[in-house]
Amino acid sequence: MKSFSTISILLLIIGLALFGILYVIPGFNELIALVGFLSLLFGAICSFIAISKREGGNTKFFAVPSFFIIFLLITWFEPFRIVWMFTWMKNLLS
User: Fold this and answer.
1) How many CB atoms lie within 10 A of CB 8?
2) With 0-12 CB in 10 A as exposed, 13-18 as middle and 19+ as buried, what is 27?
3) pLDDT tens digits, one per residue of 18-39
4) Domain residues of the chain, as ranges?
5) Euclidean distance between CA atoms 42 and 94, whole angstroms
6) Ordered alpha helix ranges (H), 1-94
7) pTM higher than 0.85 for the full model?
8) Rounded distance, CA 19 to CA 42, Å?
9) What is the largest CA-CA distance in the chain?
């Protein structure tokens, strides 16, 4: 594994852990959701970079589908959580 492949897997695991924490604790913690979303997003971006640099190994192909599958499952089971998170990020950035 090369550096971007390793970084993408680590960011994917961190994002999964943070989204898991969101479902365990009661209520909605915006900071944990933001950090989890950004971790998954940067993991997918690092995976795309690893693919474009043609790094060795197959782990570079793991983060991109996982990113889309995780958000598909979140949207499928709790659609308003995604809307809530994106609205919060929009209000934070503007």
Assistant:
1) 30
2) exposed
3) 888 888 887 767 788 888 888 9
4) 3-93
5) 21
6) 3-24, 30-52, 63-77, 79-93
7) no
8) 15
9) 42
